Amino acid sequence: MDMGLNDKVVFITGGSRGIGKACALQFAEEGAKVVISYASNREAADDTVRQITERGYFCKAVRLDFKSLETIPAALDEIVSTAGKVEVLVNNAAAMVGNGPVRAEFDTASIDEWFDLIQLNLYPTAYVTRSIVPMMKEAGWGRIVHISSGAATDGFAGGSSYTSYKAALHGFSKTLALELSPSGVYSNVIMPGFTVVERHLARISPEQMEVYATNHFTKRLGKPEDVATLAVYLGSAANRHISGEIIRVSGGK
């Protein structure tokens, strides 16, 4: 299938590791000009760029830190000047408070950290999207893919701030789809289930992974490539009629 992505400019926030990196690799294989952002781990970003450029594809990394909003305009200016106007946006990056999501029951969690996690993610995501949407409308074509989480609808104990942010993406995307689809700009959400990424490998044993896998119809856990495959389709010209949807990639969990 021709995905119609050759020379399309694709911007993936948080594209140096995990799901973002898998998206970068697969978009590049379709001939897209891929730009990824990183917050602080320049080494990981450079490694992703190297893997893609060694295969003969275009890839560039820009620094964009959700905790430093002043990095956003500079990153977008750099993208446009070196790659062109963004035609596909994958909102994948997420900033964390401290060592990760606020893991405390709602009535005992620090309310400041609770609000911080939402503010650190929802506002920058909206800021990036708002900056790019005019480029897409001007071109009469664009695709926005938001990477959410199954936790947005299923919840998890101690994760009310994280799940609130991810759930907010659903309403945000639905409204974008309503407003922008007539202009040829589509917006969709992907909800991954348990996906084996670096942070899981660091703290969950292989034995526990096997237990988790038994709860899935497919009897295996998700891989970043599983999410990336759908992201590439939704973000491509092959997607002619899907907008405003929220789609699970969870192996039936």
Summarize the structure.
With 253 residues, this protein is α/β, with parallel strands linked by helices. The protein is built from nine helices and seven strands. It has a seven-stranded parallel beta sheet with strand order 3-2-1-4-5-6-7, with helices on both faces.
Average of pLDDT? 92
- The number of E-state strands comes to 7
The SSE order reads: EHEHEHEHEHHEHHHE
**Main sheet summary:** 7 strands, parallel
The parts where pLDDT drops under 50 for at least 5 residues are: none
Q: What is the rounded Rg? A: 17 Å
Strand order of the largest sheet: 3-2-1-4-5-6-7
How much of the residues is beta strand, in percent? 5-15%
What is the count of DSSP helices, taking H or I runs of 4+ residues?
A: 9
Helical amount: 40-55%
Note the gap between the termini: 29 Å
Helix-strand makeup class: alpha/beta
Structure description:
The mean pLDDT is 92. α1 (18-29) packs across α9 and α4 (111-139) packs parallel to α6. The protein has helices at 18-29, 42-53, 71-82, 111-139, 151-154, 160-180, 198-203, 206-213, 224-234; strands spanning 9-12, 33-38, 59-63, 88-91, 142-147, 185-192, 246-249. The chain is α/β, with parallel strands linked by helices. A 7-stranded parallel beta sheet has the order 3-2-1-4-5-6-7, with helices on both faces. It is globular. Helices cover 45% and strands 15% of the residues. β1, α1 and β2 (33-38) form a beta-alpha-beta unit.
List keywords for this structure.
253 residues; 7-stranded parallel sheet; alpha/beta; globular; 7 strands; 15% strand
